[in-house]
Amino acid sequence: MSNAAQEMLDWIHKRGLGELAEKMGIQVISISADAGVATMPAEGNRQPLGLVHGGAYVVLAESLGSMCATLAAGPGRHAVGIEINASHTRSCTEGLVIATAKAVNIGKNLATHEIAVTDEKGNRLSTIRITNFLRDNR
Q: What is the pTM of this model?
């Protein structure tokens, strides 16, 4: 793990992930500009039928993808989400939900990541793509 990635993890643990991500139980396992892994429990993130809410998959993926993009932006810059797309393909009712992000493209001003959301058995639950605008801090 790079120094920047370790600093990001330390910063995340010190600052937190934000109110929504913390309420959902999201935890970042690893992070870099090119890839990352985060988890979320099914419990507490289910809709009335007992399935994990599709919006919970999106929050998990957007949180992870935006953190990867922030690392891609570099010092003195940050990422702002401008587009997200999700295709839910399977449901989950229990256990841990795992998001794995991979960079599709990182440019000077835009970063796009694809996030595969799976259950603990490796079954794909959702595929999410996020594009972030990389901008100077203001």
A: 0.91
